[in-house]
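Dear Dr. H.,

I hope your travels went smoothly. While you were away I took the liberty of generating a structure for the chain from your last submission, since the lab meeting agenda had it listed for discussion. I wanted you to have the full record in hand beforehand rather than looking at slides cold. The sequence, exactly as received, is reproduced here:
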Amino acid sequence: MTTPYTHWRKSSHSAPNGECVEVGRSPHGTIGVRDTKEGTNSPILNFTRPEWAAFLNAVRSIKA
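The corresponding predicted structure, in token form, is as follows:
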């Protein structure tokens, strides 16, 4: 079964040439992440809300 995601949003850190990551939500509350190079056929990483929060916290803690 495929989880339906809607309201895909591009990352604000995406490249101007269109290569980017998009994030969407499912009606079940899960978060999907996909690479736009593959279009709608892109594999989707599925995160629960707690997993997504942990992922964002980890990314934000990385020092550039």
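Two observations you may find useful: Residues 10 and 38 are 14 Å apart (CA to CA). The chain has a mean pLDDT of 85.

With kind regards,
E. W.
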